[in-house]
Specification:
Blueprint (H helix, E strand, L loop, with lengths): L4 E6 L10 E4 L13 E6 L4 E11 L14 E2 L6 H16 L3 H8 L9 E8 L3 H13 L3 H12 L2 E3 H5 L6 H9 L3 E8 L8 H4 L9 H15 L5 E6 L5 H14 L3 E5 L7 H11 L3 E3 L6 H12 L5 E4 L11 E7 L16 H12 L2 E6 L4 H8 L4 E5 L10 E6 H6 L8 H13 L2 E5 L9 E3 L16 E5 L4 E5 L6 E3 L12 E3 L4 H11 L5 E4 L9 H10 L5 E4 L12 E6 L3 H4 L6 H13 L10 E6 L5 H7 L3 H15 L6 E9 L2 H18 L6 E13 L2 E10 L2 H18 L6 E5 L6
Parallel strand pairs: 9-14, 9-15, 10-12, 10-13, 11-12, 13-14, 16-26, 17-24, 17-25, 23-24, 25-26
Antiparallel strand pairs: 1-2, 1-4, 3-4, 3-5, 6-7, 6-8, 18-22, 19-20, 20-21, 27-29, 27-30, 28-29
Helix pairs in contact: 1-2, 1-12, 3-4, 8-9, 19-20, 20-21, 22-23
This protein binds adenosine-5'-diphosphate and zinc ion (2 copies).
């Protein structure tokens, strides 16, 4: 790389990440520096020599050239994980458009010097049989928390306390009681925060499963490539329960044999206690986990342990990708189609793409897995860019459920105005009689959706955010409130239309709370649990609800998207999808894909064990291809129709799309900036294949009093879009606009 100046960020373990400082590159080092390289530089008043990382090499001096200090030397001890992080940050910055600082903050954990913490472990004081027997006794006395803990201790004699109070949902009081009864002991030691039990490997509570032929074939193929020094991206398409996780674990184990490390991404919501325990049991303290509930200290400790080579496996959501493994050999992305892999804040990167770059840098393999692969990945597999594997059968028994599609239009015609079709009503009743469980799914939260006047059409909206307010009812105080889901603005519910005075102003569409109430009325004996954004606000409430349901403390679980993710409930034999249409009419190009995924995954919740399952999909559009193919669990045909539509409309992945979002606290200025940027693109890109949409006020025109303008650019070549982004960045720089005022989003997953 050539250039006379280097912008250098000082080693973050000494100084907080702030901004790069510019240094002169001395004659002797000219041409030798590279982005990401560690260098020694004079810093501060005393010109103390400290370590820094080269962020950028440029010919543009930011100050008087003669006043710049010179880079001292290159740090010779090889490529550090940190400089890899720098390179990755640079790549993210180049490809998604953001400031370097924002990109750096994405890839680096904030690192502060932290005191050691005391880690508590719950240790079983009785033998396995006694523990199991006591668990049984507690269960009979309906002391469920005690039963749960003793049962787990019977399998695993030492458990970290946070795991017990968190994922296992056992209170401090219960722990104290069991301690008094001399069944358990709480041990404490000072250590790096390890989020796992340490002595688990010794316990060997894991038995190797003989992989099926098709599982083994996948493992063999990937390892064969790896050992032949071939690096590729692989896609495993397999229904839930087809044994993907077992394949991942075998691959990880073989990677460890090769002396390499692995990162496995799982959407946070699917990162359940059961899943984690499977990994702990097999890999013991070589595994660590990252999640949003860890404290800053816990996070930085996990990174530290990874950097020191104390662990070989990191499991976690998107951010776990930035674990600084020196010997990374494998990245796995489970449920690769999940939206949560795309960052919603700047830089708006997609973990799948960044993982691709990371694997290139580290000479590692990338494995994607899903029951409903993203249209992007499947498209690439069809083109031969990814190697595709398919797992067809469920392994732990259980057949695919029987699916009914119920037409809500004909329900209405025959006089049924209930949220439940007659079939669903009948099947719920049937399950209650048989003592089996039901999951009811709706992709919307709150008491009801938006509130509109049936007389004049007026819709109640948030004065700050320009989105519809949702009606929520406080069941205990029996009052209704209208709430904004963006900024939290809320106001009492209305009984008359504020515009025309009509009293026919009503909540629209059903929400989880409304369904819960209806269930109480229709099936008074049924025990109902509700899981949505409202009931899962507090720490661990998500796990608590799932664990209550898993322990059959309820007959029916009502919830939003969050209940459809990989949980195994043996007693669930009925899944009802109350209104498939809500996601069908989300108004963006991914609506069909998202609906197909949701329906398929929700359907996959039924009949996970030996009991046969049934699924009811209720919809006003039973003929929609996403509904039809989801009902048949037919990915191939869904994909064929979806990709034809994407191609016709020039949507990703066939073409590419970049959203340019302009933010301004002044309405007119925002509109003018968006116009100016769009004009700039028109002037500089005389390309008939470039399509521009807008600029216009964004769908949500204002959030927190910031005005939002949007335009979209489509082109079949991704590189053209990054070139457009570069031009716009230069324009923003030349106009001296605030860099935060314009955001780029490549192949956007969200609406603006
Ligand atoms: P997925 O990740 O595709 O949902 P899992 O790997 O979790 O699938 O497997 C589903 C169930 O089948 C699990 O209970 C797992 O223990 C079991 N299973 C997986 N592979 C095998 C195998 N080769 N032999 C026996 N049981 C298996
Ligand atoms: Zn009105
Ligand atoms: Zn608002």
């Amino acid at each position: 790389m050539t250039g006379r100046f280097a912008n250098i960020i000082v080693d973050i373990s000494h100084e907080k990440v702030d901004r790069p400082f510019q240094y002169r590159i001395p004659e002797a080092l000219m041409g030798q520096l590279e982005v990401g390289m560690a260098v020694m530089i004079p810093f501060g008043l005393g010109n103390k020599r400290i370590k820094g990382y080269v962020m950028e090499i440029t010919d543009r001096a930011e100050y008087d050239e003669h006043k710049l200090k010179a880079v001292d030397s290159i740090v010779k001890d090889g490529v550090s994980a940190q400089s890899d992080s720098m390179k990755l940050a640079w790549w993210i910055r180049e490809n998604y458009g953001s400031t370097m600082i924002a990109a750096l903050k994405t890839v680096l954990p904030v690192k502060k010097k932290l005191k050691q913490v005391v880690r508590k472990t719950i240790v079983c004081k009785v033998d396995t049989e006694t523990a199991a027997a006591r668990a049984e006794e507690f269960a009979q006395k309906h002391q469920n928390a005690k039963a749960r803990l003793m049962q787990e201790l019977a399998r695993q004699p030492a458990l970290p306390q946070p795991l017990v109070t968190g994922k296992l949902n056992v209170t401090g009081q219960t722990i104290q009681a069991l301690e008094k009864a001399e069944l358990i002991e709480v041990q404490a030691e000072g250590t790096y925060r390890n989020v796992l039990p340490e002595n688990i490997a010794v316990l060997n509570s894991w038995q190797k499963k003989q992989l099926s032929e098709s599982q083994q074939a996948i493992v063999d193929s990937i390892l064969h490539d790896f050992r032949a020094d071939v690096r590729r991206t692989y896609l495993i398409h397999g229904v839930t329960g087809s044994g993907k996780t077992e394949v991942y674990m075998e691959l990880i184990e073989q990677m460890m044999v090769e002396g390499r490390q692995a990162i496995m991404l799982i959407p946070e919501i699917a990162l359940t206690y059961q899943t984690l325990m499977r990994f702990y049991r097999r890999f013991g303290d070589r595994v660590s986990v990252m999640n949003s509930r860890l404290s800053a200290g816990e996070r930085s400790d996990q990174y530290e342990r990874a950097a020191r080579g104390d662990i070989d496996i990191m499991i976690g959501p998107r951010s776990a990708l930035f674990t600084p493994f020196e010997r990374l050999g494998l990245v796995i992305i489970d449920e690769e189609h999940e939206n949560s892999y795309k960052s919603e804040s700047m830089p708006k990167y997609h973990a799948r793409e960044v993982a691709g770059e990371l694997c290139r840098m580290k000479n590692a393999s990338l494995v994607l897995g899903s029951a409903t692969p993203s249209v992007e990945s499947y498209y690439r597999a069809k083109k031969g860019e990814l190697k595709l594997f398919t797992l067809k059968e469920r392994l732990a028994g259980g057949q695919l459920p029987r699916v009914y599609v119920e037409d809500l239009r004909s329900e209405l015609k025959s006089g049924n105005r209930s949220i439940f079709s007659r079939r669903l009503y009948g099947l719920i009743n049937d399950r209650l009689k048989r003592g089996e469980q039901t999951i009811l799914f709706i992709n919307r939260r709150g008491y009801a959706g938006f509130v509109s006047c049936r007389a004049c059409g007026h819709v109640m909206k948030c004065p700050h955010c320009d989105v519809s307010l949702s009606e929520h009812t406080d069941r205990y105080r029996n009052e209704s409130r209208l709430v904004c889901h963006y900024c939290g603005y809320n106001t009492p519910g209305v009984t008359n239309c504020p515009v025309c005075g009509s009293k026919y102003i009503l909540g629209f569409r059903a929400g989880t709370q409304q369904i819960e109430e209806l269930l109480h009325r229709e099936f008074p004996a049924a025990r109902v649990l509700r899981m949505d954004a409202d009931t899962t606000k507090s720490k661990d409430s998500y796990e608590q609800i799932l664990s209550q349901f898993a322990h059959e403390e309820a007959d029916i679980l009502v919830g939003t998207q969050m209940i459809v993710k990989g949980h195994d409930f043996a007693k669930v034999t009925l899944v009802g999808i109350l209104a498939a249409d809500m996601s069908l009419h989300a108004g963006d190009y991914r609506a069909g894909e998202r609906t197909f995924q949701l329906l398929t995954q929700a359907a996959g919740r039924a009949g996970r064990s030996t009991l046969p399952g049934e699924v009811v999909i209720q919809t006003y559009q039973p003929e929609h291809y996403a509904v039809v193919h989801a009902a048949n669990q037919d990915y191939e045909h869904f994909f064929a129709e979806e990709i034809a539509y994407r191609d016709l409309m020039m949507y990703p992945p066939v073409a590419h799309m970049m959203a340019v979002l302009v933010l301004a606290d002044n309405e007119k200025a925002g509109a003018m900036q968006a116009q100016a940027l769009a004009e700039q693109v028109r002037r500089q890109f005389d390309d008939k294949r470039l399509v521009m949409i807008g600029p216009t006020e964004a769908c949500i025109g204002k959030i927190n009093d910031i005005y939002r303008y949007i335009f979209y650019i489509k082109h079949r070549e991704y590189q053209v879009l990054t070139a457009v982004k570069d031009v716009l960045e230069q324009t923003i720089h030349a106009m001296q606009w605030n860099t935060d005022s314009v955001q780029f989003d490549f192949d956007p997953m969200n609406q603006y």
